[in-house]
Amino acid sequence: MQRGNSPETARSAQDTAWYCFQLGKPEMGLRYVAQAVAIWHDLDQPAFEAQALSIQAWLHLELGQLEEAVALAAEALDIADQSGDPRTRSLAINVTGVIFWMSRQPPLAIDYCGRAVALAREAGDASFECWWLINLGGSHAEAAYLALDAGDRASFDAAMGPAIDVTRSAYALAQSLGDGWAERLCLGNLAEYFNAAEDFIGAEQFLARFRAITSEDDARGEGHYLDILGRTLVSLKRYEEALVPLQHAHALASINGNVETLMFACLYLSKAHEHLRAFEPALDFHKRYHSLHQQFTAERAQRNARLADIRYETKKLRMLLDTEAVRTAEIARSFEALQQQTTLLTEAANTDPLTGLGNRRRLEAVLDAVDAAGEGYALAVLDVDHFKAINDTHSHIIGDRVLIGLGGLIKGSLRGADLAVRFGGEEFVVLMAGVTCAQAKRACERMRLTVARHDWSAVAAGLTVTVSIGIGVSVEGPDARDILEIADRNLYRAKQGGRNRVIVSPRPAPPRLR
């Protein structure tokens, strides 16, 4: 497109940039919008220049370029306020609200997006009103998700209600406008919100409406739909059916680099495979999810850190810093809370909720570090003897209490450097660093006796609990996973040998003298 100083050229470039945004092609959109900004500036059209700057800010936000987005949004706000045009101001204020939404600052996001909706209505622009309502609904939903992360179900319900109501209003407006892009966005968001509220049937009904829209969808919209569909089908326990959309969503997210969609696709592919008893792909996808979750959480924390550290240079935002000190303090408090939540989430992801010990993911991370350190260690695999009989005789609740009690006994017998995890079911793994085979066996014998001699009558009358233990030591194999397999084979030998015993690998026989 050749540059020219005509309004038609500027308007065409600006519209093309907006279409690129809708299609999820921000890099291409930035090329066009820069041309529009320059032409509107040359033509001394501040309202249109502010609109183009707002779109430019939004495109930078899509690319994760927060500093550029904030600086451009500030400039757009300043010019829009000077222009006095309500439509232009609604766009600039909405983009500022979206920046707060993406930075997990829902109170500010709700405030700005709500003001943007009001200004769009004042300007009589139904399309802007529809789109900003979608963002307002997303901001309310963000407040709900933060409440859910904090375990506050009442606050979750209180925030999710407005999110659903506002998005329903946006959907009705999109239908009246014949805006298929906005309709799909509303339906995908409503399905996501209903999933979060555990109304999976309602979520599936919204997805069915999504499929019924005949206008062509873009790759980003299709990825969002496939991701939500897969999650919904997993929640409905239709695991085989869920694999197809989840695999497609995974492929699309891998191509377009959408970390959040890729992360959730891996999580729900892991869940679906696990329920289908395909444990190897389930574990593989869960490892990928864990890695992506850490990446996503770190990037989000960094983005919030950058937001708190940005120094606004324009006159408009210098004034905002003076007059909205309370809001600035709220951003800092929210960021501190996000850091705490990040720490809690990371810890929770590596902790077994029943026993409070580490879980399989924690063990896998530590085993990688153990192999890298190259120091001696032993791995012990413990299994509760006749655990199925305990469940069948006393109930699964009693079985859970046995596991909780066993976790406490194991933890109490460890040295500070040791690690105990619940590996799955009634199986536990203990990592002992810097021990010989004989030392590991003595430690495990003490554990075995502690369990066998423990008074289990407080859990259930007449209950006795014993464990079988298999040990592998680092000199027996090339890496920790091989040692874990050796320990597991020795556990099997302990079971076969009568249970309630500790087994190590047999020593090779000495060579015979001639």
Automatic annotation (TrEMBL):
Gene Ontology terms for molecular function: diguanylate cyclase activity
Reaction catalyzed: 2 GTP = 3',3'-c-di-GMP + 2 diphosphate
EC class name: transferase
Designated name of the protein: diguanylate cyclase
PANTHER family referenced in this protein's UniProt entry, alphabetically: DIGUANYLATE CYCLASE DGCM-RELATED, REGULATORY COMPONENTS OF SENSORY TRANSDUCTION SYSTEM
Family annotation (SUPFAM superfamilies): Nucleotide cyclase, TPR-like
InterPro entries, per database record: Diguanylate_Cyclase, GGDEF_dom, Nucleotide_cyclase, Rev_trsase/Diguanyl_cyclase, TPR-like_helical_dom_sf, TPR_rpt
Domain GGDEF: 375-507
The EC number(s) this enzyme carries: 2.7.7.65
Domain of life (superkingdom): Bacteria
